Amino acid sequence: MDGLTLRALEPEDLDQLVRWEADHVEAGLRVAPYSRSVLKRYLDESHRDFWEAEQVRFVLAGEAGQALGLFDVFNAQPVHQRAEVALLVDPSMRGQGLGRQGLKLVEDWAFGRAGLRSLHAEVFADNAAALQTFAASGYASSGVLRAWYRVGREFRDVQIFQLLRS
User: Judging by DSSP bridges, how do beta strands 82-89 and 118-124 pair with one another?
Assistant: First the structure.
């Protein structure tokens, strides 16, 4: 899909954020959903500088500015020039390469603008689509953390991926 950009969260994204956050609960990634008011406060605070907040959330936007997904750069470590990256592509838009395209835009920002040296991601070991997205985007597998996250009543493994600035 041509014409993709990263943009800041806007107030009109609130309804979509509520839906996407509810999906995290349904998937067992969170015990309870964030309320609309919590997400609104998050939007109101999203103007903070990346290095002050140690995180930034981008909307992956189509040509018309519509939200297609989210890309988070978080747990930033200024001394070590690294951060973690996570992505969410709207379920209706999956399978079109948006994850890879969005990661490329995030990498351009992280390495070119923010001055990071390294990005890494924790991917559930059974999430074939995400594993493929990170591998196809040039991230190297750096190992597996066994029983790393509790999801519901079980523990799940994550695979670590890393990309170093070239």
Answer: parallel
The Cα–Cα gap between 29 and 49 comes to 27
Cβ-Cβ contacts under 8 Å for 127 (sequence gap 6 or more): none
Query: How far apart are alpha carbons 37 and 95 in whole angstroms?
Result: 32
HSE of 147 in the Cβ direction (CA atoms, 13 Å)? 3
State the Rg of the chain over Cα. Answer: 16
Question: By the 8 A CB rule, do 161 and 141 touch?
Answer: yes
Residue that has been written with the tokens 């950009």 in this structure: 5
Residues 31-57 as b/e (b if ≥16 CB within 10 A, e otherwise) read eebbeeeebeeebeeeeeebeeeebbb
Tens digits of per-residue pLDDT, 40-69? 887 877 778 888 889 999 999 999 989 999
Give 5-164's CATH code, choosing from 3.40.50.150, 3.40.630.30, 3.40.50.620, 2.40.70.10: 3.40.630.30
Q: In this structure, how many other beta carbons lie within 10 angstroms of the beta carbon of residue 105?
A: 15
The span from the CA of 51 to the CA of 113, in Å, is 12
Its pTM stands at: 0.89
